[in-house]
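Schema walkthrough. Field components (list of strings):
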Amino acid sequence: MVQLRPRASRTPASAEAMVDEGQPASEEEAEHGLLLGQPSSGAAAEPLEEDEEGDDEFDEAPEELTFASAQAEAKEEERRVRETVRRDKALLKEKRKRREELFIEQKKRKLLPDTVLEKLTTAAQTDIKKSPGKLREVNLQKKNEECEKGSDSKKVKVQKVQSVSQNRSYLAVRLKDQDLRDSRQQAAQAFIRDSLYGPGTNRTTVNKFLSLANKRLPVKKAAVQFLNNAWGTQKKQNAKRFKRRWMVRKMKTTKK
Amino acid sequence: MGEFKVHRVRFFNYVPSGIRCVAYNNQSNRLAVSRTDGTVEIYNLSANYFQEKFFPGHESRATEALCWTEGQRLFSAGLNGEIVEYDLQALNVKYAMDAFGGPIWSMTASPSGSQLLVGCEDGSVKLFQITPDKIQFERNFDRQKSRILSLSWHPSGTHIAAGSIDYISVFDVKSGSAIHKMIVDRQYMGVSKRKCIVWGVAFLSDGTVISVDSAGKVQFWDSATGTLVKSHPIANADVLSIAVADQEDSFVVGTAEGTVFHFQLVSVTSNSSEKQWVRTKPFQHHTHDVRTVAHSPTALISGGTDTHLVIRPLMEKVEVKNYDAALRKITFPHRCLISCSKKRQLLLFQFAHHLELWRLGSTVATGKNGDILPLSKNADHLLHLKTKGPENIICSCISSCGSWIAYSTASRFFLYRLNYEHDNISLKRVSKMPAFLRSALQILFSEDSKKLFVASNQGSLHVIQLLEGSFKHLHAFQPQSGTVEAMCLLAVSPDGNWLAASGTSAGVHVYNVKQLKLHCTVPAYNFPVTALAIAPNTNNLVIAHSDQQVFEYSIPDKQYTEWSRAVQKQGFHHLWLQRDTPITHIGFHSKRPMHILLHDAYMFCIIDKSLPLPNDKTLLYNPLPPTSESDVVRRRTAHAFKISKIYKPLLFMELLDEGTLVAVERPLDDIIAQLPPPIKKKKFGT
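Field assembly_structure (string):
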C-alpha cells in the first residue's frame, strides 16, 4: 500500500489546482492524487511547499507532465495491483484445490475397500441367512433386478444389508437412516415420559403412596420403606472385609 | 409326610414389566397383552385365563398399539415405526414392515377386518390393505399438524376419528380428507397451561365420538356437526384409555389414578325410550396408571403400569353366578422362571436380559417344627450372565450336576460349560451351535447331564449329546400332526429313557430316548397343559392342566393309572378346582413313590396316593390337627391332599434331597416398591 506523506496544511484554493493540467511536481504526487481519489489539492500543496522551500535555491518551473502520461502511469499502477490481486486469488484457489484433494484422499483411505462397498450398494433387502457361508455374487444379479423393480413402490428401501463376506460376523447398516430413526424414537419416548411423568403431573413416590394407609391407622405405623437398605453399601462392604482380616490376624496372634 | 428343612429364598428380584396394550378377540375368546419390554402374551380366557403363548420382547420394539384382524391375525405397532405381524403357529415374528411415518402411536383395524389404519408421529394417517400373507400400503390421508395418538373407525367403515394434541379430527375414508376438526378444551383443574392430549377416541354407530383426554374428561361429540354434546369431568389426572362394547351400550375408561369407570346407556326414566350415558361403576383394582382397557361381552379387562392384569366379569352379563364370575387378577407368571441343580444346591434365575446363578446357604443348627434356623453360610451370588443383543431370553435351564447352562433368545442359542474349583467358578461358552438350533421354546437337561433336549419353535424336538467340551446332535423328532396350542413343555424321566412333550392339540407325546422313536400319545384334553413331570422308578407321567385337573399316566403300560381313574371318577374337591393360579411345577420324592409335590402361586400341596380322596363335604385345607386329638379323629380327617399355605406367593418349590425343600417366594410389596411413581392421592389427615 502506498504510504501517505504527512501533509502540513491544505490550501482551500483547490479549484485552480484541479483545473490545471500539468501542475504536479513529481510523478508520485500525481499518482497519489489520482489513485486515492483525493482532490489534487493535496498534491498541489506539495509542489507549493517545495516551491516555497526550493524557491531560494532555483527558480525553475515545475516539471511538465502531460495528463496522458500521468494517466498512463496511473493505469499501469492499477494494472499491476490488479495483477497481484489476481495472482493472490489464483494462489488461494490452488491451495484450496490441493486441500480438497488431500481430504478426498484421506476419506478414501478411511472407507472400506471398493469391492465390499459395491456389494453393499447393489445387494437388496433379502434374508441371506438361507445360504450360509457363501458369497453373494450369484444372487446379486437377481437382487439388482428386484431392487430396481421395487424402487418405485414406497416400501423398498435399502436399510439393512446383512454381511456379505464369508465370516458373517458383522452387519452393515446405513448410518443416516439409523440416526434419524433413533432421534425420532427418542423424541417420541421423551414426549410420553414428559406427558405422564414430566412437570405439571401430580406424581409421588411409591413409598409415600403406600404409607398413606399407615399414617391413618389408629396406631400410626412407620412408612412402608422406612429403612434405606442401599445406604452406605461401600462402607458396609469395607467394614465386613476389615472384620474378616482382623479376625484372621487375631487368630494368628493367639496361635503364636 | 416327613420333616423337611426349607430354604426360604427371597433374593429373586423378579419385577414384571408394565402392561401397555390389551386386545380382545371375540371369536376365540383370547386376549393379547403387550408389555413395555416388547413381550406379547396371549391368554386363553376360556381355559381358566391361562397364558398359553407368548412372543419374547425386543429392546427396540416399544409397542404402542395392538390389534386383531380377520382370521386370527395379530398386529402390533410401536415407536420404532414398524408394523409387526405375529405368527401364532410358529410362535415368532412373521415380518416387520416400516410405515415410514416415524414412530407409530395408534393402530386400528377396519370393521370388515381387511384394512389397517395407522397413526404416526408426523401427523399422517396411513391406510394399509391386509393381503393373505402380508400388508400393503394403500394411501395416506390428509396430514395433520401434530401426532395422531388415537384412532377409531365408525362401525360402517365410512368415517374415522383421530385424536391428536388439543383437537380431534374426523376423516372421510373414501376421500381421505378431514371433515371436521373439533378443538378440545384444555381446562385442567382451572389451569389451562398444559396441552390437552386426547389419549383415546371411540366412534359409535350413531355418529357420536367419545374422547378421553389428559385433563380428566370424557366428552361426547357429534361427528355430523362437529360440536360438543356432553362433557364428564371424571378424574383429576389423565384418563388414559377407552374401550366400547360390541353392542355399544356400555364402555369402560381407565384413569391414571388406577380407577376404572364403567359407563352405561340407561333410559332416562324407567319407561321412556330416551337413553343417556351414565357413569355407573368405579373400580379401584390398580395402584398405578391404567394404560389400557378392553371390553369383552361379559367382562371388563384392564392393565397398566402396576403389572397386574385385572379381569372383572360384569354381574349383569354373566349367566351363571358361580366362581367364574369372580374378579381375576393375574400377577405372577404362568411358567417357571427358575431351574435348580439338586447336587450342588444351585438356583438359576431367568430375567429378561440376564441370568443369575445363586448357591443356597447352609445351616448346621437343628430345631423343631416352625423354627427359623440361623444360617452358617449365606447364599452366594455366583454368576451374573448378561445376554448379548437386544432380545429377551425365552427359556433357560441348568443341568442337575450344575456344569451346564443353556438359554435361548429368539434368534440364538447359547450353551455354557461351568467349572468349579474350590470356591471359584469359571465359565466357558460352547461356540458354533448348529444352524437348526436357532431359537428354542423349552430346554431341558437329562438327569445324568449327558443329554440336552431342545424344543425348537419349528415344532421339532432335538436330542443332543453333551461331550466334554462339545456336543453331538443325535436325533431330531419331527413335528407331529396337530396345531400348536400352547408353549411346549418338556419332561424327562430320571432314568433317561422317556421324554414327554406337550403343546400341540394332539395331546402329550411320549418318546423313547434310547430307541429314538415315538412311544405313545396321551389322549388330548381340551385345556392346555401347565406342568409336566415323570416320576422316578414307576415312570408315571403326571400332567396338570389349566382347569386344575391332574392326570397320572403310566408310560410303560400306555394307560392312565388306577389312582388317576379313581380321582377322575370321584372328581376333585370344589375348592381345588376354584384356585386361580395354575400349577407350574411338579416334583417327586425319590424314596416315597406315593407322594407328588405340586405348587401354584399361593399354595403347595403334597398328594399322598395311599390316603383316601376327599369328597366335596370334607375340609380341603386341614392343617395338622393338634396331637391331643385321638388317633381315630386324625385318621378320619386325613385325606390325600396335604395343602400348606405358609409360603406364598410362591414362584418355585422343589425337593432338593431327602429332607430339604427350597421355596422361592416373591412378596408383592417387593415388586410394587420398584414400580414407577403413581399419581399423588390426597387423604384427609395426612
